[in-house]
Amino acid sequence: MNFEFGNTSIHLSPIITFVIFAVILYLLWRWSKELENRSFTIFLYFMISTYTAPIFSRSTSNGDHFELWVPLGFIIILVYLVANKKNHPAKMKASLLGLAVGIYKLIEIYRDLLF
């Protein structure tokens, strides 16, 4: 969305992206304070769980192409958290926030493929 004011214009998309980025950083910082030691691991859980990867790809002879993408990083983190007995709620919150970003990435990927 653009707002034109004479010779200048305001692009709203970068502003919204910056605000969302700031909110994510604030939440991660606040959740990292809940851990007694190694508070930086909250950021690692978030970054790993945002990873999305294609697990299936198919092409036909007439040129159609399909890829199935999944939030693979979140699945890996979830398996690790379930297997680990010292599970902290802040780590789960950070990985769920990473899943939200991963789903947003999936929407962007499929939107580019379809349109």
TrEMBL record:
It comes from the Bacteria. The chain crosses the membrane at residues 12-29, 41-60, 66-83. Keywords: Membrane, Transmembrane, Transmembrane helix. This is Glycosyltransferase RgtA/B/C/D-like domain-containing protein. It comes from Neobacillus bataviensis LMG 21833. The lineage of its organism: Bacteria, Bacillati, Bacillota, Bacilli, Bacillales.
